Backbone:
């Protein structure tokens, strides 16, 4: 079972549960990322979390279902701190979720982490998390894991998370020495170099995503140039509209596969970027607290990798944006082009939207590098 629950001195029955997680925007346009996020996380709440809690008579609520009038930020903070139980969906490392989760961790109260497979944030990856996928069978499995976590916690008490153990002096609250099991868990916990290696692997994969993205755009551009030449020949020959429409349909068919691939790669790139963001920021924070003369060669390579990645992304960003505008212009020529153009436009928007992460990483890395050389 993949759950992490905070320890109480005696087993107790939670009566209230507050759900922390991304919410999205229920009023956003249908098909928009914000609306899709809302529908997805509402489904997780209604199909997974609520039924599991209700089985044990636990009243469950999330932020957008707080009925009382008042300052919403204060209401959320109070529920995060005071609720008997918090279930946190950490998918994608949403900043608000991570902040609220930090508040909860130091209380030492029961907390269950859940998250979509492949989207768990780096900096809490060592904390056991119930993972789910978007299929019905996997959601049912996640619900059963939450139920099992609640059953064990209610019967035997709840384990203490690391932040609360640190605040209380490392040892268990009963004053006994750490068990061999907990010592083994500490031995298995990732160290700083392990963490840097995970981030660097993620950055390398992002670089590969960018290369694949660029190559796919080049493929589509080459097909576009070829089709443009064909269309020009037809126009000069005063070919009928039906002939030009046929050429356009062939062109649309040719670019459909690379357009889908472009969208797929862009989605993977954006998800990887979002998942890595909190881990990279944590790593940069650790570097900042390390005196410059104590930073090793690997740390400097890490900072330089962040700067190089941002420079490469910046060079491609203008080209990506221009390509997206050209794609939108093409969609006006024929209905055959609407689907591949939609894939292309979505891909460009995805990549553009997450480029700010890279710029922020690089800006911090430059500050740390320049501070070390002064």
Residues:
């Amino acid at each position: 079972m993949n759950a992490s629950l905070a320890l109480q001195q005696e087993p107790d029955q939670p009566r209230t549960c507050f759900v922390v997680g991304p919410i999205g925007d229920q009023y956003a346009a249908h098909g928009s990322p914000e609306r899709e996020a809302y529908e997805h996380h509402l489904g997780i709440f209604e199909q997974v979390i609520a039924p599991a809690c209700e089985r044990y008579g636990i009243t469950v609520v999330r932020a957008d279902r707080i009925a009382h009038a008042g300052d919403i930020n204060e209401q959320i903070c109070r529920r995060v701190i005071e609720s008997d139980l918090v279930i946190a969906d950490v998918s994608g490392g949403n900043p608000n979720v991570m902040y609220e989760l930090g508040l909860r961790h130091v209380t030492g109260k029961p907390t269950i982490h859940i998250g979509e497979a492949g989207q768990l944030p780096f900096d809490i990856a060592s904390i056991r998390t119930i993972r789910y996928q978007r299929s019905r069978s996997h959601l049912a499995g996640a619900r059963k894991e939450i139920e099992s976590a609640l059953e064990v916690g209610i019967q035997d008490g709840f384990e203490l998370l690391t932040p609360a153990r640190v605040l209380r002096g490392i040892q268990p609250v009963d004053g006994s020495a750490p068990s061999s099991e907990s010592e083994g868990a500490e031995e298995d916990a990732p160290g700083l170099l392990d963490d840097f290696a995970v981030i660097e692997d993620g950055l390398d994969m992002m670089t590969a995503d960018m290369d694949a993205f660029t190559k796919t755009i080049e493929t589509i551009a080459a097909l576009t140039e070829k089709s443009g030449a064909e269309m020009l020949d037809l126009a000069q020959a005063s070919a009928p509209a039906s002939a030009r429409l046929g050429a356009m349909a062939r062109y649309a068919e040719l670019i459909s596969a690379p357009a889908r691939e472009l969208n797929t790669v862009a989605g993977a790139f954006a998800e990887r970027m979002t998942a890595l963001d909190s881990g990279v920021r944590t790593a940069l924070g650790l570097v900042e607290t390390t005196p410059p003369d104590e930073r090793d060669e690997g740390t400097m390579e890490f900072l330089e990798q962040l700067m190089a990645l941002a420079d490469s992304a910046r060079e491609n960003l203008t080209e990506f944006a221009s390509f997206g505008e050209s794609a939108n212009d093409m969609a006006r020529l024929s209905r055959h082009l609407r689907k591949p153009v939609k894939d292309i436009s979505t891909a460009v928007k995805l990549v553009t939207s997450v480029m700010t992460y890279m710029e922020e990483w690089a800006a911090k890395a430059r500050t740390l590098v320049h501070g070390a050389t002064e």
Notes: Residues 256 and 340 are 5 Å apart (CA to CA). The beta strands are 16-20, 59-62, 85-89, 111-116, 130-132. The longest helix spans residues 241-289. The chain has two domains: 16-188, 192-373.
